[in-house]
Amino acid sequence: MALHAQEDVADRMAPATITIGPGLGLDHGGLGVQLSGRPVPMLNLLLGVGYNLNGAGINAGAAWRMLPHKRFCPYLVGLYGYNAVIAIPDDEDNTRTYYGPTAGVGLEIHPKRRSGHLQLALFLPFRSAEFRDDLDRVKADPTVDLRYEPLPIAFSLGYHFGL
């Protein structure tokens, strides 16, 4: 019987401390990219810039990585930046981006032989009273065709490449 624990650890590449990657979600600024850096293994600082259905979406934040040396690394994250959009086609008066804090949980999945990783997250945006008031006003307006309301939670999916 052979033990392979040391071989598996040796085969795995160390995670990159600076990564960039495409994704979809608040932490990527909508449909965009996220740049992240780890000053220490348990802390990830991030900046996401993308398109949020109304223009540029930007979010910045920090994540606490609970198991930084494991292939499956859960994390808690806090963001500040855009966290809601009301986008009505051909109606600039009712199309707007809203900003505020967002909290979330996520999971990094690190392949054995790559320095990048897959990232999945679930977010709870703390949306402003202004957003809720504007959404109620738009829903009550019979001339506005509101096809979708924002969910109370948000999801994220991205892949990061090591730099």
The CATH class: Mainly Beta
Radius of gyration: 19 Å
Question: What shape does the CA trace take?
Answer: elongated
Mean pLDDT reading: 90
* Class from secondary-structure proportions: mainly beta
How much helicity do the residues have?
10-25%
Question: Count of helical segments?
Answer: 2
> Within the CATH hierarchy, at the fold level, what is the topology?
Porin
Low-confidence stretches: none
Strand content: over 45%
Tally of DSSP β-strands: 8
Structure explained in plain terms:
- With 163 residues, the protein is mainly beta.
- The protein has a single domain (5-162), classed as Porin (Beta Barrel).
- The chain is 12% helix and 52% strand.
- The protein has two helices and eight strands.
- The chain has an eight-stranded antiparallel β-barrel with strand order 1-2-3-4-5-6-7-8.
- A hairpin with a 6-residue loop joins strand 4 and strand 5.
- The protein is elongated.
- The chain starts with a helix and ends with a strand.
- The mean pLDDT is 90.
In short:
The protein has helices spanning 5-11, 129-140, and strands at 18-25, 30-40, 43-51, 56-65, 72-86, 96-109, 117-125, 154-162.
Q: What does the secondary structure layout of this molecule look like, with pairings?
A:
Elements: H1 5-11, E1 18-25, E2 30-40, E3 43-51, E4 56-65, E5 72-86, E6 96-109, E7 117-125, H2 129-140, E8 154-162
Antiparallel strand pairs: 1-2, 1-8, 2-3, 3-4, 4-5, 5-6, 6-7, 7-8
Keywords summarizing the entry:
163 residues; mainly beta; Porin; 8-stranded antiparallel barrel; 12% helix; elongated
